[in-house]
Amino acid sequence: MKLRFLTTSSNSGSCPTLYETDEGDIVVQGYQLTDPEALAQLRDVLPNETFVVVPRELMTWFEQKG
């Protein structure tokens, strides 16, 4: 799988960052959700799934690309 950098909201080059795979899927780099109360609210979690917190302002990149 090949990744293409899309955008980041970080000035220092760290996360959060969005990538696109060569199959058109989106990969999110960010801080892992670790809050026990929030994790308890998630549904239908598979063993190989994880959850990443994405700042809302990073997601506006998709709106700008239209």
Describe the structure.
- The protein has two helices and five strands, in the order ββββαβα.
- The strands form two sheets. Strands 1-2-3 form a three-stranded antiparallel beta sheet, with no helix packed on it. It has a two-stranded antiparallel sheet with strand order 4-5.
- The chain has 66 residues and is α+β, with helices and mostly antiparallel strands.
- The model has no long low-confidence stretch (mean pLDDT 89).
- It is globular, with a radius of gyration of 13 Å.
- The protein starts with a strand and ends with a helix.
User: How large is the count of helical segments?
Assistant: 2
Mean pLDDT: 89
Which consecutive residue ranges, at least 5 long each, have pLDDT under 50?
none
Find the count of extended strands (DSSP E, 2+ residues).
Answer: 5
Roughly what fraction of the amino acids lie in strands?
25-35%
Side-by-side strand order of the widest sheet: 1-2-3
Radius of gyration: 13 Å
Cα(first) to Cα(last) distance is: 25 Å
Structural class: alpha+beta
The description of the largest β-sheet is: 3 strands, antiparallel
Task: Count structural domains.
Answer: 1
Helix content: 10-25%
Following the backbone from N to C, one meets helices and strands in this order, namely EEEEHEH
Q: Tell me, briefly, the overall form.
A: globular
Q: What labels describe this entry?
A:
66 residues, alpha+beta, three-stranded antiparallel sheet, two-stranded antiparallel ribbon, 5 strands
